[in-house]
Amino acid sequence: RMKQEGRNGLRFFSPDLQANTQRSLELAAALKGAIAANELFLVFQPQMALRDGRLTGAEALLRWQHPKWGAVSPAEFIPLAEQTGSIVPIGRWVQRQALRTVRAWDEAGLPPITLAINVSAVQFAQTELVDELCTMARDAGVPPERIEIELTEAVALRDPVAAGKTLQRLHNAGFRLSIDDFGTGYSSLSYLRDFSVNKLKIDRSFVRDIAHDEMARRLVRTMVDMAHALGMTAIAEGVETDEQRAHLQACGCDEIQGFLYSRPLEADAFVAFARANARP
Ligand code: C2E
Ligand code: MG
Ligand code: MG
Ligand code: MG
């Protein structure tokens, strides 16, 4: 219950909403100090090939552990960070940490794993993004091919001309590119053809329905075919059941990511998982 209708039609904010707003303000303020206070860390969710169940890559997902609020969900704090601009330093921290992690995996003797990082609209609009990523990768001694930049359709479509240029620069620098939450935005084939995207990430909402909804199955099959026609890989997000996995396999999907194989893992647990599931 967000709002209450008053007797004479006036709307009152409920105490719930006030508390919510207060929380947002406090969170936004606390977020500014989160890097310095060492409250941020990355977790890593495995991505597996459907054909043989081997590990192909991972997605880095940001976590915030606050002394007062405990674990705050990125679904809550990323939008706040975008509104206040904190996302820019936080995004840089994520990139640096991700590169450091890839380097550590290599030094630990893991087979080469591609690590995907999420980049939001505000970060993507920063003209220095590409140069910074290149410098960070060079400093970390990590080839750009090992980093995949995840962008949602909404970001790519906000300003397609500018986005296309940035994607082209990232591609030329050697970074891999994927479209996140695919199917929830307004894609057009032409933008996918023009952008040098490697991978489509089929949104969880389609995967959720795939086992009981023929239309969801047809849509997934169409998205997979489209990815392949454009020379891209298709990965399904949010796969939780064997039944979903079987349907995705029947649709020709290449990879899956989801709780069925693994939740996002902390660094040490990921290394153990990678050792057990690496390509031979
Ligand atoms: P996303 O990039 O689409 O990430 C996938 C989300 O789905 C993650 O939520 C992941 O934990 C969750 N997930 C994975 N498998 C399953 C499953 O089988 N079932 C269900 N129910 N959920 C699954 P998370 O970690 O809470 O992140 C939420 C969103 O926050 C991400 O969505 C992404 O948009 C954003 N985010 C996370 N980390 C970062 C970051 O470092 N930078 C930016 N800009 N955004 C981030
Ligand atoms: Mg993502
Ligand atoms: Mg997604
Ligand atoms: Mg998402």
UniProtKB/TrEMBL annotation:
This is Signaling protein. Residues 24-278 form the EAL domain. The chain holds residues 654 to 933 of 933 of the full protein.
